[in-house]
Design a protein that fits this description.
single chain, 452 residues, alpha/beta, Spore Coat Polysaccharide Biosynthesis Protein SpsA, Chain A, UDP N-Acetylglucosamine Acyltransferase, domain 1, 2 domains, 20-stranded parallel β-sheet, 7-stranded mixed β-sheet, 36 strands, 16% helix, 34% strand, binds uridine-diphosphate-N-acetylglucosamine, binds calcium ion
């Protein structure tokens, strides 16, 4: 017996007021539909069928998952009709799990019991709501067994009082589901083929309906507008914050913490407010991050301090570095450890050797720097000649004076020193002082201009 997942994603999402199909709107930097697909993966689904309609080409283009079976629903005739579109690809002995592309935060912890509930009947995921308005109500007999679902628009006043509602998520045997779907009719208030009608059919056929209750409302909540999207985003970020705190991170404010990707943290990490993590970020032990930082696809080793307003992308940060405030580390940079990178310093595609310091107002690009180097304030590696990029090599123990320009390709030798404001166009030899200043002059009899 294998698991097939059917994800309904054909709805237009008019209330999003967007040219983008609803299921492509993102939660935690990832399309809602991708969250649902990831769930299907973690449940070890053998096949996942996505029923799409509105904005079909955009949906197919945005989801790179090659294992998806795409099923087009041209006209949205109801949830039962939507599921039926996928049935040609379903085997009779499959267990079929029905999910929704706009319900992104369901967890396998909730879905696995639902799948298990289909082993001897139909699994139905329900939830208790204080305000059940708009949802299909779960009808039970006196013995407490589920007998049907009635939609809000078809419900009597008495039925509307029921606060156990249908989440829409169900699991059933493929053959039975096929049979029930083929018997659906649309003589109801909305003129739609309701998936929910299969519950009464199962009861008629003597198949047990096993209701499973969701542990939280957010897990079964859908998104219809941007307000709900923002609520979903906050709930998702709260979860990420809890994961980080459980792993040993102190968050100064879990409500001002955003993970748009995957974050892993070591013990005793501290994260100040308004830090955004994107892509894959890993933080070692005792890492401290100040307020308003942005880290993307970056690995940070133990004991690193990142001060306020620092931006780091696609970089490797070695042990015990101190970076910022106001530093920018750009892609393909590697700090080998114990480095100080100070304010208004930009590093791009460069290796900074062990213990080297770049403390103030500097641009280092396309550079291989050795260890124990000291870069003076305002040093620039002029790596671009207007057409091509060139490399700068700075060997161990070298030092640059303030406002030096290293015109690449160029090399600063081991232990070499540059005088202030040197414009280095040829390699500087090891262990010597090199400088290119103009000679200092003083002009006698010169007068400051006066205001007229
Ligand atoms: C549905 C359930 C209701 C449940 C509620 C939970 C039915 C008849 N009703 O109602 O019992 O309480 O969900 O949110 O199933 N879709 C398609 N193709 C279609 C129709 C719908 O792909 O032809 C998709 C939509 O994109 C949407 C989902 O199915 O994501 C639910 O459809 P919708 O029409 O919103 O159902 P509800 O009226 O909310
Ligand atoms: Ca709905």
């Amino acid at each position: 017996m294998s698991l097939s997942v059917i994800i309904l994603a054909a709805g237009q999402g008019t209330r999003m007021r967007s040219s983008k199909p609803k299921v492509l709107h993102e939660v935690g930097g990832k399309p809602m539909l991708q969250h649902v697909l990831d769930n299907a993966h973690s449940l070890h689904a053998s096949e996942t069928h996505v029923v799409y309609g509105h904005g079909g080409e955009q949906v197919l283009g945005a989801i790179a998952d090659t294992s998806v079976v795409w099923v087009r629903q041209d006209e949205q005739l109801g949830t039962g009709h939507a599921v039926d579109q996928a049935m040609p690809g379903i085997n009779d002995d499959d267990t079929v799990l029905i999910l929704y592309g706009d319900v992104p935060l369901t967890t396998p912890t909730t879905l696995q019991p639902l799948i298990d509930a289909a082993s001897n009947g139909v699994g139905l995921l329900t939830v208790l709501l204080d305000d059940p308005k708009g949802y299909g109500r779960i009808l039970r007999n006196n013995a407490g067994a589920v007998i049907a679902i009635v939609e809000e628009k078809d419900a009597s006043d008495e039925q509307k009082l029921v606060n156990e509602v249908n989440t829409g998520m169900m699991a059933a045997n493929g053959g039975q589901l096929r049979n029930w779907l083929s018997r659906l009719e649309n003589n109801n208030a909305q003129g739609e083929y309701y998936l929910t009608d299969i519950i009464a059919m199962a009861v008629q056929d003597g198949v047990a309906v096993n209701a499973v209750q969701a542990s939280s409302v957010i897990e079964v909540s859908g998104v219809n507008n941007r307000l709900q999207l923002s609520e979903m985003e906050r709930a998702y970020q709260q979860r990420q914050a809890e994961v980080a705190m459980t792993a040993g991170a102190t968050l100064y404010d879990p409500a001002r913490f955003d993970v748009r990707g995957e974050l892993s943290v070591g013990q005793d990490v501290t994260i100040d407010v308004n830090v955004v993590f994107e892509g894959k970020v890993s933080l070692g032990k005792n890492v401290s991050i100040g307020p308003n930082c942005y880290l993307k696809n970056t690995t940070v080793a133990d004991d690193v301090t990142i001060l306020a307003n620092t931006v780091i992308e696609e970089a490797m940060i070695g042990e015990a570095c101190r970076i910022g405030p106001f530093a920018r580390i750009r892609p393909d940079s590697e700090l080998q450890g114990h480095n100080h990178i100070g304010n208004f310093v930009e590093i791009k595609k460069s290796v900074i050797g062990e213990g080297s310091k770049v403390n103030h107002l500097t641009y280092i690009g396309d550079t291989v720097m050795g260890s124990g180097v000291n870069i003076g304030a305002g040093t620039i590696t002029a790596n671009y000649d207007g057409a091509n990029k060139h490399q700068t090599i700075i060997e161990d123990g070298a030092s640059t004076g303030s406002n030096s320009v290293l015109v690449a390709p160029v090399k600063l030798g081991k232990g070499a020193t540059l005088g202030a404001a040197t414009v280095l166009r040829k390699d500087a030899p090891d262990e010597k002082l090199t400088m290119t200043p103009t000679k200092q002059r003083t002009i006698d009899g010169w007068k400051r201009p006066v205001k007229k």
